Amino acid sequence: MTHGVTIAGTGSYVPEKIVTNDDLSKIVDTTDEWIVTRTGIKERRIAAENESSSDLATQAALKALEQSNTKAEDLELIIIATITPDTLTPSTAAYVQTNLGAHKAVAFDISAACAGFVYAMKIATNMINGGSVKNALIIGAEKLSCVTNWTDRTTCVLFGDGAGAAVLRPAEEGEGRILATDIGTDGTQTKILNIPGGGSACPTTPENIHENLATLTMSGKEVFKQAVTRMRDSANTVIERANLTPEDISLVIPHQANLRIIDAIADRLAVPNDRVFVNLHKYGNTSAAAIAIALDEANREGKIKKGENLVMVAFGAGLTWAAAAIEW
Length: 328
Ligand SMILES: CC(C)(COP(=O)(O)OP(=O)(O)OC[C@H]1O[C@@H](n2cnc3c(N)ncnc32)[C@H](O)[C@@H]1OP(=O)(O)O)[C@@H](O)C(=O)NCCC(=O)NCCS
Hints:
Elements: E1 5-13, E2 17-20, H1 21-25, H2 32-39, E3 43-46, H3 53-67, E4 77-81, H4 92-100, E5 106-110, H5 116-129, E6 136-143, H6 153-156, E7 161-170, E8 177-185, E9 193-194, E10 217-218, H7 220-241, E11 249-254, H8 259-269, H9 280-283, H10 288-300, E12 309-316, E13 320-327
Parallel strand pairs: 4-5, 4-6, 11-12
Antiparallel strand pairs: 1-7, 2-3, 6-7, 8-13, 9-10, 12-13
Helix pairs in contact: 3-4, 7-8
The structure holds coenzyme A (COA).
């Protein structure tokens, strides 16, 4: 008899170095007031030069393993969602497998930008439900500071570094479980949010190296509109699939990109703001790590109680979107 998939433990890690809005105002033409009013972000964490995405991921994973009482050698699956892999190949997950000593685990990365952690959750859930693995580790890890154009005030104020992780396994009777998931992609909108260079379409060359092509570019207003619509629809999809109503949701954990986007989603879902988890003032947008870090903080701060329902909903480059309804 299967009871679905449970989240057995969570973990997160952010680098020590804090960069405030005032710090940024010394390198680009911006102010703390502009950034806080337009985004809600007050500061972000920036990884050390010798700290890579796999290092951040490993620290988050160790905490999730500890909380879930899982030994690394018992893991059978590691999925890392990242747009800032340590190397283009092998996968960041391969480095993390070795760092943890999780030698039995099949390990691979996925690229679904800010929606990646929830994509990973869906893939791992399906693999566990299908019976091919038992203990799975999913991680969102990003060192966005290495793909940020630090001379562009319209983007550099938005992003930060960090990692979050969760251990998934088959639910025992009476345990919480993942009730429904939704993932989607619209490849017609690749130009509104992307890293144009550094890949096979536009490799970095001695001629273009000074053009900052391997950094994040964005049409802020268009992304804003798409984010609100897609996240509203995806959250509603999982609420419906789980046979819930907005009143049944104790906590919404949205992607942490912009407080105005979060407020708009809460409004459209008819969920009061005190049931929406926000930590972007501390970390900015950490892409695939954002929801994972928020899930861990909400868990460790006791914001989700056993038996309560939560909805996670994310949006990112691709365009990608994803949501999950979870009974805790
Ligand atoms: C990026 C974002 C905060 C910009 O806010 P906005 O209200 O759309 O602001 P605009 O882009 O219209 O810019 C307004 C003005 O502020 C200026 N500006 C932009 N960044 C600035 C900064 N950091 N400091 C000061 N001024 C800034 C612009 O140059 C523009 O000036 P102008 O009117 O003289 O041309 C907002 O569009 C947004 O959050 N979009 C979604 C981003 C996102 O979530 N991305 C990730 C999705 S996963």
